[in-house]
Amino acid sequence: MASTADFRNGLVLEMNDDLWQIVEFQHVKPGKGPAFVRTKLKSIYSGKVVDNTFTSGAKITTARVESRSYQYLFKDDVGFHFMNNKTYEQIQLDEKVVTAPDFLKEGQNVEILFHAETEKPISLEMPSFVTLKITYTEPGFKGNTASNTYKPAKLETGAEVKVPLFIEEGELIKIDTRNGEYVERAK
């Protein structure tokens, strides 16, 4: 058991037969009445975000979660397959657990969050940015390097993103996995 004094971003709570991760919290001490903690919680399983208020000092049940490093191997009709970097044990995950599956590249390292008591995988944390090669895009035109116009480009993983007109086929680009947008040319 823990109390609201132990709140921090990323802490996982057990409430209402679900696991909730604290996205943000704020301790509020109004001029009149008792203090309370206003939180924004994200359901680990469904991804739903809710606002919840706890009275200051309230007891809560925390869930023990562990983050382990895995390497992405391949995808088949069963799901995504990963290998533990330390034990070489392989696991298979459903597509609903994998965030941004379009940007997974074979051999890429990811962090998988496990519920420590049940050893069940909860979620997959992609790196914030990935570097991928463009396999196809329309040719750019000379003189259009300063414009704010985008064109579609197909990446080596099969994903499609919008890139500036000066980007050409075969180049490496950096992609933000949180929103799927082009960031910059990779060096």
CATH class term of the largest domain = Mainly Beta
What oligomeric state best describes the polypeptide chains here? single chain
Order the strands across the largest sheet as they lie in space: 9-8-7-10-11
The CATH architecture designation of the largest domain is: Beta Barrel
Instruction: Output the radius of gyration.
Output: 21 Å
Shape: flat
Ends: how far apart?
48 Å
Beta content comes to over 45%
If you had to describe this structure to a student in words, what would you say it looks like?
The protein is an all-beta fold and 187 residues long. The chain folds into three domains: 2-60, SH3 type barrels, CATH 2.30.30; 65-125, OB fold (Dihydrolipoamide Acetyltransferase, E2P) (Beta Barrel); 129-185, Nucleic acid-binding proteins (OB fold (Dihydrolipoamide Acetyltransferase, E2P)). 0% of the residues lie in helices and 52% in strands. The chain is built from no helices and 16 strands. It has strands spanning 2-3, 12-15, 18-28, 36-43, 49-55, 59-60, 65-75, 80-84, 90-93, 109-115, 120-125, 129-137, 150-155, 160-164, 172-176, 181-185. The strands form four sheets. The protein has a five-stranded antiparallel beta sheet, with no helix packed on it. Strands 14-13-12-15-16 form a five-stranded antiparallel beta sheet, with no helix packed on it. A four-stranded antiparallel beta sheet has the order 2-3-4-5, with no helix packed on it. The termini are far apart. The model has no long low-confidence stretch (mean pLDDT 88).
